[in-house]
Amino acid sequence: MTSAVPIGPGTRVTLRFTLRLAGGDLVDTTGNKPAVFTVGDGNLLPGFERAMFGLRPGESQVLPISADNGFGAHNTRNVQRMPRENFSKDLELEAGLIVSFADQQKSELPGVVTGVSETMVEVDFNHPLAGKDLEFEVEILEVEQVSNEIARARN
């Protein structure tokens, strides 16, 4: 028996989704395999969660997600120029190559090479979907109230 609980704080949601760029290019999909998340657990960005608030089991929608509510604006400060000598001589550097670095906490930090000259390499550390408007197509399969959490005021 499906509940009539709407998606909101304190709910666990089972859904299928397809994520596309606003122009229609496919980014990701669950296909026929459902995904499960609990609102606020960090598995979905808050902007994706908020866009689904109020949806109930059995509903399907295409939700527009602006860049600001998705992966954020493209930040030019996240594009770094580094001396070519910092890279292995065996590495064939070209635009589009994804390279992995370690940040100060020793966590993996991927970057995309966007330019290469004789002496410098330009690497973009923005999320690949930063600055992109998206369409989030969802089919809500199940919504379950799992806690009494109430919505927190958001700025």
Write the layout of secondary structure elements.
Blueprint: E1 11-21, E2 26-29, E3 35-38, H1 46-52, E4 60-65, E5 79-83, E6 98-102, E7 108-116, E8 120-124, E9 134-145
Antiparallel strand pairs: 1-2, 1-3, 1-9, 4-9, 5-8, 6-7, 7-8
Shape: elongated
Helix content: under 10%
Structural class: mainly beta
Strand percent estimate: 35-45%
Number of H/I helices: 1
C-alpha-based Rg, rounded: 20 Å
How many extended strands?
9
Multimeric state of these chains? single chain
First CA to last CA: what distance?
Answer: 37 Å
H/E series, N to C?
EEEHEEEEEE
Overall average residue pLDDT: 91
Describe the structure.
- By secondary structure, the chain is mostly beta strands.
- Helix content is 5%, strand content 39%.
- It has 1 helix and 9 strands.
- The chain has one helix spanning 46-52; strands spanning 11-21, 26-29, 35-38, 60-65, 79-83, 98-102, 108-116, 120-124, 134-145.
- The strands form 2 sheets. Strands 1, 2, 3, 4 and 9 form a 5-stranded antiparallel β-sheet that branches.
- A hairpin with a 4-residue loop joins strand 1 and strand 2 (26-29).
- The protein starts with 10 loop residues before the first strand and ends in a 10-residue tail after the last strand.
